[in-house]
Amino acid sequence: MSLLQEEREIILGNEYVEAFDFAEVEEFVKNANKELFISHHFKHSNKMLVQPRGGFPTYNKQFALNEFFVNANVDVLPLTIDSNTRLNDYSTAARMLRLSEENDVDMLNGYPLVNHGYRTTRKMVTHFNKPVSLRHGTPDARLLIEQAIASGIFDIEGGPITYLLPYSKNFPLDKAFLYWKYVEQVCANYSQLNEPINRESFGPLTATLVPPSITIVIQLLEMLLSLQEGVKSFSVSFAQQGSMMQDIVTGHVIKKLARHYAEQTGCGDASIHLVYHQWMGAFPTDQNFAEQLISVATTVAAMVGADKIITKTKQEAAGIPTKEANAETVANTQYSLRILNGLPNITDPEEEEILTAEVMAIMEAVFNDPADTLWRKVFNSIKNGIIDVPFSPHIINHNEMITIRDANKNIRIIKRGNVPIPDRCFAYEKAQCDLTKDTTSIVNDIIHDIGIMQ
Amino acid sequence: MKVVTGVVGNDIHVVANRLIDLSLKARGYEVFNLGVNTYLEEFFDAVVETGADILLISSLNGEAEGWGREVKALKAEYKGLDDLIMMIGGNLTVGTGSADDIVPKYKNYGFDLVCHQIDLNTGLDMLADFIQQQPAKSTAL
What we know:
The complex is a heterodimer.
Chain A: H1 3-12, H2 22-31, H3 38-44, E1 49-51, H4 59-71, E2 77-80, H5 83-86, H6 90-103, H7 113-116, H8 118-128, E3 132-135, H9 142-151, E4 155-157, H10 173-191, E5 198-200, H11 212-228, E6 233-239, H12 244-264, E7 271-277, H13 287-304, E8 308-310, H14 323-339, H15 349-367, H16 374-383, E9 402-405, E10 411-415, H17 423-431, H18 439-450
Parallel strand pairs in A: 1-8, 2-3, 3-4, 4-5, 5-6, 6-7, 7-8
Antiparallel strand pairs in A: 9-10
Chain B: E1 2-7, H1 15-26, E2 30-33, H2 40-50, E3 54-59, H3 64-68, H4 71-76, E4 85-90, H5 99-109, E5 113-116, H6 120-133
Parallel strand pairs in B: 1-2, 1-3, 3-4, 4-5
């Protein structure tokens, strides 16, 4: 028996798992309907796929939400997992699920997939026969991913960096790399049976003034870590940044460099897709304004040329949206995409050149780390601040980089810390900003820049 | 002067914490930032370890209210913290409440300065004034 299989049997021997039937699950994936695979849709669809966010604790409420989504002409269904499951606390999730079922009050902020189990969840997934995307935030997602794939969920979001640095203060990063290596291997193995399982990275990170160079570097590294293990379909992603030009340039550079590094590392046979998140920062409380923001985000996504868009709702500022509001945003986004025709093909060559040089310089510094494997190189690079994510709560993150917005709302780096931004690029970034102000006014500007959409 | 700061309890809201760090540094303080998700013991341990003059606790999700009532008892277990300036700021209640009710409550918990939903720079000006009014502590910033 392989080491991986031994580990899988230990993971799936968890007391909260109903007897996991490896052979039956393999047979299910092998014969699963192609419609369930987002990789199949990426290959054959010529429109941007629309996917909302959403997860409810009980089976019945999740089923009802999916019905609303399907009626609103959804392309990809979401399944958002509750926070207890994300922290592997299945006993609390079980208790809260029972309370939710008994009292008709939601005691969980998502669907506790491990507690429902794959046999139950598969009934829902195959009933709707649409691709489902797993949204979570789990550093150790080994058990969750096994259950998800066994349920027919073939689009798996997350990664060791993007699910850790924005969400945790002290979960050990080296452990996260190893747990995600398991996830990649399981996805890669199942990918040989039918259409490939798609992996997707979470580009929004902290959604707070993250410069595109850092976003792109982390997307590329999570992609390479995944492709190295044999994954054949991968989505890089980023969220609306606040400047249409910067988004378009980011889209161009990420597509170009994803292809470049995949080929350079011998993984050129994988298919790579681009996912765009509607604004992930603080939303306006005025629901009319929120709707406008969502519609502008859709326009930018079309200009960026995304393969999939992940939507927000007008109720974002108020908390978890109702299924009605959530379905409405799907229908609205589909409508916006339908009328966005004849888009011009524009870019800013100077910006594109600068951003490309920044990303390549950071990537080179990561590759030059003396460690023997890629994950250790990336780990060391985060530890020593070559990669620095603004506003990450994690203790390993350096927090030395400072960014603000220029007059056109582009995110600019005004302090680079240990991040090897080339001198000429750094000079260009700073030249776009007014740096004559004292730190107190700059802090006020940062507060303003974080809340620009409110 | 040395400041220990951080966000109390199981609160992961990091944005203001980073801005407090930046602003304190800009005003010349030496900052020891414990970040988000910090327990009261960790704050006092850090004050002892660094010999800090000021402890600035922040809270966004309001759970400071639960922690605040334990401050006096815990602080009494440490020696030599009598001169420590205690400040708390952010959103200091779960749900809604007025500063008129909240400020006296926290003063009673042992805080010298209480800033409920007060702008960051106003709060730090209050701190500077407070330091100035303390004769023994008006030295080098």
